[in-house]
Every structure is written in structure tokens, then in C-alpha cells.
Amino acid sequence: MAELKPVGRFAPTPSGRMHLGNVFAALMAWLSVRSRDGEMVLRMEDLDTQRTSPEYAEILRDDLSWLGLTYDRETPPQNQRSAVYDTYFDRLARQGLLYPCYCTRSQLHSVNAPHLSDGTYVYPGTCRNLTEAERAGFHRAPAWRVRVPECLWAVDDLVQGHSEWNLASDCGDMVVRRADGVYVYQLAVTVDDGEAGVTEVVRGMDLLSSAPRQMYLQSLFGFPHPDYAHVPMLLAPDGRRLSKRDKDLDLGQLRRRVSPERLIGTLAYCAGLIDRNEPVAARELAGEFRWDKLRRDSIFLDAAELI
Predict the structure, then answer these.
(1) Ranges of each domain in the chain
(2) What does the pLDDT look like over 91-112, one tens digit per residue?
(3) Cα separation of 307 and 304, whole Å?
(4) 7-80+232-306 topology per CATH
(5) Has this prediction a pTM greater than 0.85?
(6) CA quadruple 247, 40, 28, 212: dihedral positive or negative?
(7) What topology is assigned to 82-187 in CATH?
(8) Quick one: which H or E segment has residue 286?
């Protein structure tokens, strides 16, 4: 039987121009799929309509085209899929896995709450077993959480290797819908990837802890688990993560100063994919791409060297 072709995806948030970290993750996703003659899907992750816009979505499409990172189809943006998410939310409710949570932001980030090494909190189950009378005492709309089991989820990542996660102790019950009715990242991404037939998820290693969360939801919804590849973070020379928030060089600036081949060649060289820092087109890299070439630790890049 012939091996099924992989289906990968770009899933940018249209809240601004792509920065170098976004470009790097997109390049790795594209190379992995194209190296095996697979299909690439584009999806705009715009759940937060206050921060995102159709104008930025169009700019992102143009930036991907400039980089040579083509895609084969685009799925509907997340802000148009609330009715779809409703059906999966209802499925969780029918399984008896949902409950309302009235905790405030300050309570969730209390110093008394358990925290992981990265500073994120582990939900202590405060609202898990409230009685109907206790719930009636709150006069505000609740968020909704899904109960997680006390069991291990193994993630065999193509870059970061094997890890095991106990959702009960590593994150606690997950929010799947906010108090304002907006669905959260974990549920939306799980549904979107599952319905699009995505078989490989490539993203930054800061999202590694999302893999077991999404694997749990995949099991509840009947979706197969995709392969995961959490690529190293791109850091400035001082160790700071490159991001939109810190106003690091984005494609709006870079496109005026460098060619796409120069940008891609530098990223590929810093990642260990090629031996010399020289301009190269994405399509020229696809034929020789292998995950075992990619370094696992953080990648330091002085963006000023590109200009």
C-alpha cells in the first residue's frame, strides 16, 4: 500500500506582520511537507477579533507568496466557525465532561496556586465540584472547562523527542470556552486540524505543552493524532525571544532590505540545514530536508546582520 501523503498547515494569527520566528516555523512546516510531495493548508487563527483583521490576513498571504511558501488550499478563518465549535462543545457536554468555572484572573494567577517551571499555572479544580446552589451564588457568566483524566500522554516529537505528560498534574482542567462565549485555542485548533485532515503540526517549541492537551481532545472527538514537530525558538543575541511584542524586525521592514532567498538562506544556515550562509530559495531546500538535520536547542540570530 502506498504511503499517504502528509498534510501540513500554516496557522498564522493576522494581528500584525510576521516576525522572524513566524517565518522560521512556516519554513520548517513547508519544507517538511514539500519534501514528501504533501499538501499545505492555510488557516487564519483569528478567534480574537479585537486584535486581528482581514487586512492583516491579506498581508500574511502576500508575505507567504513573497517567501515562496505556497499552499494548496485555505480553510475558513476561525471567526467564521463558531457554529462548528458549538457542535464539539455540545459533544463534550453530552459526555458529562464540562463544568462552569467562575474563577477570576487574579485567582488563577494567585501565588497560592501551583505553577509549572515556565510560570503557567496548574488549575487546582476550584470550581470542579460546586453544587448548583453554589453556582447560583455567582452573578456573572462562567468560562467552561473540560475535565481531564489522571493518565499519561506520550508525545513523540520529531524534533524534541519523547516526553510524557499527566494532564491532571501538568495543566489541570482546561478552559474550552471563555466567559464571553469565545472558544479558546486548544478546542478550536483541535477541531480545525482534525476536520482539515492535518497529519503533521509544526510550530514553536513554546507550544509543546499544547500537544498532550490537543491529543486528549482529539481522542474525545474521534480525530487521529497528527505527528508533532516543535521547532527551536529564534532568540536575539541577548537571549530575548523574537516576537511582535518586542518590535523586532518583521517582514514589513525586511522585504524592503533583503531578498527572500537571503532571508531563507540565513534561517536555514542558523538552523543547521545548510553548511554555508548563502541565498537559497525554499524550493531548492525541499529535496534535501530531513528533521534530523535540524538543531533542537534555541537558535540565536542577530537580525541586524540581515540588513
Answers:
(1) 7-80+232-306, 82-187
(2) 999 999 999 999 988 777 664 5
(3) 6
(4) Rossmann fold (3.40.50)
(5) yes
(6) positive
(7) Glutamyl-tRNA Synthetase; domain 3 (3.90.800)
(8) helix 282-286
